């Protein structure tokens, strides 16, 4: 059992967590809330990661023993945490080795390690990934392996920080069913921190909202409402013609897509189906067969810097797209390199990043980094934007802000949430079997 009593925490001057009191006793607790409200910080404090950092008031108890009385290695065996960024988990080159890493440190017999690897992979429906190199995994597949690595340790408490952020809706529901099943069968406590509670709150025993560092219990979640829009498309801008790409086997097969000016096109599909790869091909990061035309001109033989001026891309991992040491310098980085004068103050305000103007971008939350990536590309006004999972780490309010920023811009958005897709996208495609199929997703 975890008991939190009047607990507050701050890194520097402002309190991030304020007078939190709750008990988690062999139940599945879901905590939702806005980006930067303190959810991830709460997860880290419970797991003991911030034990020697910042200022603490109040108590966190584990089985009636204060967490500060545990050594970190003791807590690590009892409390497992799946962090928000799956790449931060991975430290080996092979999936099997990755899941075995923690088990080997527990000095378990080889036969038990093998058994737990197979069990954990089956739980996340990732048996097919067992012999894969970790560098070849998609974002969603990395998420599965991060979860499997913690499940294999069989801790008493598991904390999931945005465990489904990179996963499609069906896999999200399956992971939540698995978490609930594990919690029930193993008699453990589970804490899930999630923005997209629409698809998961039904699995929770208790639902909380974090608001400005304070925790409030929610009995009846409010309905999610977006101010949706559908842009009126103009002339064709981007054309993908008979595009094919293969790794060990063909991943993209005869992809044809035309995107018109001002149109927002959504690309959905299961994890590992090739959605990110398609964006990488359009940017000429990968060698592909077929052609990509921008306003009728082939860009296949053009250099990436020339393409990047006209087609902006938001990568799946926000850390891969940060180059400067302050937020302001980051937003003005691209315009300066392209020789463009750009006033970014409005972008900083709309994205709620103005207070961090002079701060280090790597100290932002995951969701804040994602918004920083987006306005950094918007700052030089490309003709087309490719966005790979831009809503990871975003609460529903910030989803609306992102889409308001993108209004009128020609976009291809890779996403998993059908509700967002139906609200904002002119057309929605599923990438399945290497091909695009236009469809209407269900909520």
Supply the key terms.
443 residues; alpha/beta; globular; 6-stranded mixed beta sheet
Description:
There is one protein chain. By secondary structure, this protein is α/β, with parallel strands linked by helices. The protein has helices at 39-46, 72-78, 95-105, 110-123, 139-151, 169-186, 275-282, 304-310, 327-338, 345-350, 366-378, 396-406, 418-424; strands at residues 2-10, 15-24, 28-33, 55-62, 65-66, 79-82, 157-161, 189-193, 206-211, 214-218, 236-246, 250-260, 264-268, 289-294, 297-298, 311-314, 384-388, 410-414, 427-432, 435-438. A 6-stranded mixed beta sheet has the order 6-7-8-3-9-10, sandwiched between helices. It has a 6-stranded mixed beta sheet with strand order 16-17-18-13-19-20, sandwiched between helices. A 4-stranded antiparallel beta sheet has the order 2-1-4-5, with helices on one face. It is globular and about 70 Å long. The two termini are 35 Å apart.
In short:
30% of the residues lie in helices and 27% in strands. With 443 residues, it is of the alpha/beta class.
Task: Summarize the SSE layout with pairings.
Layout: E1 2-10, E2 15-24, E3 28-33, H1 39-46, E4 55-62, E5 65-66, H2 72-78, E6 79-82, H3 95-105, H4 110-123, H5 139-151, E7 157-161, H6 169-186, E8 189-193, E9 206-211, E10 214-218, E11 236-246, E12 250-260, E13 264-268, H7 275-282, E14 289-294, E15 297-298, H8 304-310, E16 311-314, H9 327-338, H10 345-350, H11 366-378, E17 384-388, H12 396-406, E18 410-414, H13 418-424, E19 427-432, E20 435-438
